[in-house]
Every structure is written in C-alpha cells, then in structure tokens.
Write a structure and sequence with these properties.
The protein contains 18 helices and 6 strands.
C-alpha cells in the first residue's frame, strides 16, 4: 500500500496540476459554492431576536442542538436560512437505505442499475423536502417557546411566523441539496460531505482559540495543551490508517476458451473495509444520548420537569453511564449499518454469476457464510476503533473542558472527507496525464 501511494505521489507534480485546466475549474467551482454556503449561514430568518437566541443557545450548548450547530457551522445558533443545513438530506438517505433492506420495490430498483439509482435519488429528494418541512415547522414552534427569563426569542409569534420559518428553512435545505449535487457533478469531491465538513472546519479556529485562551488564563497548563495537540495529530493518523485499512479476499476466475483464444484465469481481490459503516454510528449514538438532555432543557421552565430531567442527570458528559451507553450504541449501530450496506448473500450470488470463486470455498451459501464470518470479525475491530476515537475526546471534554468541536465525530468527518477529496484530485490528475500520453501516441502514429 505504501509503495503504491509513493508511486502515485511521484507521478503527480505541480506541472501536471498547472496543465489540468478542467481540474482547476472544478476546484474553483467547489470553492465558490462553499463560499456561497458560508455566506448563507449568516443570513438570519426574519422575526428573531438575535441576542435572546444567542443566550438560549449558550445554555443548550451541551445538548443535541450543540451537535447540530457544529454540523451547520453555527447556522443553527444564529438561526439563519441554512439552520437545518443538509441534515434532513442525510436522514432521508439513511431512511431510504434502510427501506431498501425491507422493501422489495426499492430492492428491485437498486438492482436496475443507473435508472433505478436515479429513481431512488428522486425518492430521497422527496423525503428531504418532507423532513425539512416538518423539522422547520418544529423549530418554529420551538422558537416560540424559547425564553431567556421573561423575554421570548420570537418578536411576533403566531401562525404567520411558523409558516414563514418552515418555508424558509425548507427552501434553505433544498438549495443546499441542489448545491451539493452541483459540487459533485461540476466540482471535486462529494458535495454533501464537503458542505458538512465546511461547517465543522469553519468553527475549528474558534475552538482552537478557546483552548489557547484556557491556557492563557491558567485553566489548562501549557504542557497539557502541547500534549493535546500532539494527541490530536496522533488520532488523525489513526483515523487515516483505519479508514484506508481493508481485508482483501482473493477471488479467482476460471479460464474459458472461445474459438482459438483463451480468456479468464485472472485473480483479483474483493476489498472489505475495516470500517464499512463510516461516521453513521457515532452520529446516531450522539443523537440518541443527547435527545433527553435537550428535552429536559426545554422543559426546565415548567413547575415539574418530570422523569426526563432525572434521567438526564445520569446521562451528562463524563459519567460512567454516558460513556458506557455511548460505546454500546456505537458498537450496535456499527454492526447494524454494516449489515444494511453489505449483503454477503448478494455478493456471493454475483461472484457465482460471473464465474468467480474464493479458493478453497464452494460457491453459493458457503461463500456467503465465509464472507459473513470475515465481515463480522473485521467489524469488531471497526466498532472498537470508532468507540475509542469517540470516547477519548469525550473524556477530555468532561475532564478538561476542551471545546466540543474536537469531538471524535467531527474528526472522523473531516479526515474522511479530506481523504476522499484528495483521492479524487489524484484520479483527475492521473486521467489528465493518461489523456496527454494518448494524444502524444496518436501524433507519433500519424507521423
């Protein structure tokens, strides 16, 4: 793996980048789209008292609102037109993926190739609009109930405010969905992932400044800050290694003769990633654990906060119950989502259909059982890796008040998206070099 990476890096130089006009256009388009996104995170929705809202969000920074505000780059805390960010699209995509495992109609569409994929994407868009509308209306109703003392966050509450806010937030999410698709088609990298990463990265300088301010005031010692920065670099290296790690299963194709020519007989590999589920398990686990905290905070002004507040007292950051449940939920969702996105029986059928087989394993059910056995073992490693990466920052946050943006989920997203974007840039550069070689070969043949 290392030698291949070195050869790839050696084959790409600044001269090749300077000549890759299309790649430069794609990069500029991507940067321009992200600038538009960041500008939109500062356009507030009408009818909101910004000072009161800021005070309310300061009180709820540790709940689920704080996590969503991190993903939106502060847009939710400022209650702008992009407050929902792209999260309704992510939720709709996950729901559609889960439905593919239980719905024969969606499963059939999945097997139809490009045409089926377009229909599934259209269903995802419809689901995004529906979720954004519901969430937008829920935020509008929630804003009317938010108060800082006797002052309300909404200037003129009422049905008009709710409708206006729901339409504005839904339109903002739809625009971001379209912008992400444009980045994917005309830019570089996955547009949706880049939008999420841009929101997280935009707040990292503030989090770093907050950490340094803690050191200046003496709340954190200078050796600890240096250790923390070095540990962050080490965690990034671990994430890069684990995200690239995979188990390669040898697949052999038999030789076949057509006329006087012999075809086939080559061997290839079926790669199984250590972390097949990506960043979905930490996001799901965080959302479920932070939900009671958020509900209890909203209910804190009532005379009887109820049983939710009592449960929340045991689920605060740093408690053994929170850490245990967080790790257990990450492990559960890692296995659950891996089972959704990878079907050993379908993979075994595809191998048998094209004549491929794993040496020493009979095609069909035995191959499916073998793939399931291997996948289960490497998923254990993936679950341990995700739990460790996410629990270490939680420990630092609870013990030393390190800013929330250094959480494991944010690091996973930033590192994964960066790796994917760099890989696509390398692919474009290599494609440009191959095109240049082909043109030179054609010119020589004409001579």
């Amino acid at each position: 793996m290392a030698s291949a990476a070195e050869q790839l890096a050696a084959s790409i130089n600044l001269g090749a980048f300077a000549k890759a006009t299309e790649l430069k256009q794609r990069i500029w388009f991507t940067l321009g789209a992200l600038v538009i996104y960041r500008l939109g995170t500062y356009i507030p929705i009408p009818g909101i008292d910004a000072s009161i809202l800021h005070e309310i969000f300061q009180q709820n920074a540790g709940g689920i609102l704080g996590m969503f505000d991190m993903f939106s780059g502060g847009a939710l805390g400022r209650m702008t037109i992009f407050a929902l960010n792209i999260m309704p699209y992510i939720s709709a995509s996950i729901i559609v993926q889960l439905l593919q495992a239980v719905s024969p109609t969606l499963e059939k569409l999945k097997q139809e190739g490009e045409a089926g994929r377009k229909k599934i994407n259209q269903y995802t868009r419809y689901g995004t609009v529906a979720l954004a509308a519901v969430q937008g209306y829920g935020i509008a109703v929630g804003l009317e109930g938010m108060r800082a003392g006797a002052q309300s966050a909404v200037i003129n509450p009422g049905i008009f405010f709710c409708a206006e806010t729901a339409i504005t937030l839904c339109a903002g999410t739809v625009f971001l969905m379209w912008l992400g698709e444009q980045i994917t088609a005309r830019g570089i990298g996955n547009g949706i992932s880049l939008i999420i990463m841009a929101g997280i990265v935009a707040n990292l300088p503030h989090a770093l400044a907050s950490t340094l301010e803690l050191g200046r005031t003496g709340a954190l010692s200078t050796p600890f800050i240096i250790f923390f920065l070095l540990m962050s670099v080490a965690v990034v290296i671990v994430i890069v290694f684990m995200e690239r790690a995979q188990r390669r299963i040898l697949v052999q194709y038999p030789k076949r003769q057509q006329g006087n020519r012999m075809f086939g007989g080559e061997a290839t590999h079926l790669p199984l990633k250590i972390n097949t589920s990506g960043v979905i398990p930490p996001i799901f686990a965080s959302s479920l654990l932070l939900l009671p905290t958020t509900i209890a905070t909203f209910d804190a002004n009532s005379a009887n906060p109820g049983w939710v507040s009592r449960i929340t007292a045991y689920l605060t950051h740093g408690t053994w119950l929170y850490m245990s449940l967080y790790a257990a939920l990450i492990v559960f969702f890692t296995f659950f989502y891996t089972a959704i996105v990878f079907n050993p029986e379908e993979t075994a059928d595809n191998l048998r259909k094209y004549g491929g087989f794993i040496p020493g394993i009979r095609p069909g059910k035995n191959t499916a059982d073998y793939l399931d056995y291997i996948l289960t073992r490497i998923t254990v490693l993936g679950a341990i890796y995700l739990a460790a990466v996410c629990l270490l920052p939680e420990f630092l946050i609870s013990e030393y008040a390190v800013p929330f943006y250094f959480g494991g989920t944010s690091l996973l997203i930033v590192v994964s998206v960066t790796m994917d974007t760099v890989a696509q840039i390398h692919s474009h550069l290599l494609a440009h070099q191959y095109e240049g070689l082909i043109k030179k070969a054609r010119l020589r043949s004409r001579r």
